[in-house]
Amino acid sequence: MARKKLVILGAGESGIGSAILGQKKGFDVFVSDSGTIKNKYKSVLYENGIRWEEKQHTEAEILSADLVMKSPGIPEKVPLVQKLMEKGVPVISEIEFAGRYTQAKTICITGSNGKTTTTLLIYDMMKRAGLNVGVAGNMGKSFAWQVAEEDFDLYVIELSSFQLDGMYEFRADVAILLNITPDHLDRYDYEMQNYVDSKFRILQNQRPEDYFIYCADDEVITSEIEKREIDAQMIPFSIKNKLAFGAWIENNELKVSINHNSFAMSIFDLALQGKHNTYNSMAAGLSGVVFRLRKEKIRQCLTDFQGVEHRLERFIKVHGIEFINDSKATNINSTWYALESMSTQVVWIVGGVDKGNDYSMLYDLVKTKVKAIVCLGKDNRKIIEAFDCIVKDIIDTDNMEEAVRNSYFLAGEGDTVLLSPACASFDLFQNYEERGQMFKQVVRNL
Questions:
Q1: 198 has a pLDDT exceeding 70
Q2: What pTM, to 2 d.p., does this model score?
Q3: What residues pair up with 29 in beta bridges, in sequence order?
Q4: What is the CATH number of the domain that holds 21?
Q5: Range with lowest mean pLDDT among 70-84, 165-179, 276-290, 302-316
Q6: Same domain, residue pair 165 and 75
Q7: Known binder of ligand: residue 397?
Q8: pLDDT tens, 283-333?
Q9: Residue 401 maps to which CATH number?
Q10: Do 233 and 264 fall into the same domain?
Q11: Residue 35 annotated as part of some ligand binding site
Q12: Cα dist from 389 to 256, 306, 366, 367, 384, whole Å
């Protein structure tokens, strides 16, 4: 009997992981990437005898597939993907593919902001509690690669809307929805409802014994919940209101209560400070209670978690000036959270590839917290025009050395220099990680 053919579009981490898993499960695997495949991935393909091509997509080869795993970075509107769909070839995401070959429990986290922090916080908590747990999604080893080579009982998975779009049969045992604010709307025909629908795919196939943990302060989420029939057990968390069930703040204490299982701790003891991080800590604490972890373990993890590189990373003080690397803030909302959590005067480094940003939602925070702005990008006119009447000192730069040097001169003792770009990094850097690493390197050289 002929083997089924699995074609993989995109040879990044998720693509190579899917190729390894596909081969292990008896598929005839072919990997195709329109760009250049990294050498470390090429060597894996060679070692495993997997056919591949780069810098092209051979249509005849691809259209003969029985199943296609598409990288989340490739939009569905691409003609090749449209042809596959017209032909009736299933096009799925790596998470969907890997999910078919594991019986492990899953905790899945999505939202416009805070996904990575919450995912790593929950992973850290489960690991410390002694569970046999893996972490997947947009970090580390891909889910498919781990399913192929590891034997975890539980996965904590960060899910972007693009990954959710290619998921059909997959089911999350615990689904966490942190927030929904406009992002990536270019992929959703500039229709907010399309993006909301994408995020709510995290609930698909959930059963009454599963859990849906969500932010009750997010109006988009709460209004969408009213339109839907949800089978899972719903657990809200809120900073604004006291709840009888879920997680909330009362007298500066974070309280969690689910089915007579409860615990409390001071919000001042949380390792991650700022309103957005309180939400992240609540979501993590709730998943700990759902999995019946010991209260001391949950409390300990929320108290001393180290945080995420490039996300509000306080890494050095130079002459009394604190430098914070928030390079992962690639949209307005992330930067809003960053500025909101600042308790000193800020010299703010901002700029890059604008995703249609509306800077007006930052005006109030910038008026009260920002003493100077340093723009870092190839074209900073929109930022300069947006804040010209609010901030006296605005400097235009197009390289990291100049941006850091100007920030250092503009800041005084007790101030903070915050790299929180609110934009993608592709004009000057390969990705937000490279931008953050270079920022830290230049600051250390001051």
A1: yes
A2: 0.78
A3: 6
A4: 3.40.50.720
A5: 302-316
A6: no
A7: no
A8: 999 999 999 999 989 999 999 887 777 888 888 899 999 999 999 998 888
A9: 3.90.190.20
A10: yes
A11: no
A12: 44, 38, 11, 10, 9
Query: Is 112 a known ligand-binding residue?
Result: yes
Q: Are residues 229 and 328 in the same domain?
A: no
The yes-or-no verdict on residue 227 having pLDDT over 70 is: yes
**Residue 132 annotated as part of some ligand binding site:** no
117 among the known binding-site residues? yes
Domain boundary, last residue among 304, 335, 370: 304
* Owning domain of residue 236: 96-304
Q: In terms of domains, do 241 and 270 share one?
A: yes
- pLDDT at 184 (0 to 100): 57
Please provide the DSSP assignment of 418-440 as one string: EE--SSBSTTTSSSHHHHHHHHH
Please identify which residue in the block is written with the tokens 């998720």. 14
Q: How far apart are CA 378 and CA 357, in angstroms?
A: 16
Q: Which of 42, 65, 92 is the last residue of a domain?
A: 92
Q: Are residues 319 and 432 in the same domain?
A: yes
- Three-state DSSP at 376 gives strand
Note whether 407 and 375 are within 8 A (CB).
no
Closest to 288 (Cα-Cα) out of 251, 237, 220: 237
Does 221 lie in the same domain as 261?
yes
Q: Is the pLDDT of residue 188 over 60?
A: no
Is 280 annotated in some ligand binding site?
Answer: no
Q: What are the structure tokens assigned to 422, written together? A: 């609110």
Asked whether the CA dihedral 15, 92, 122, 196 is positive or negative, the reply is positive
Q: Which residues pair with 8 in a beta bridge?
A: 31, 69
Ligand-binding annotation for 116, yes or no, is yes
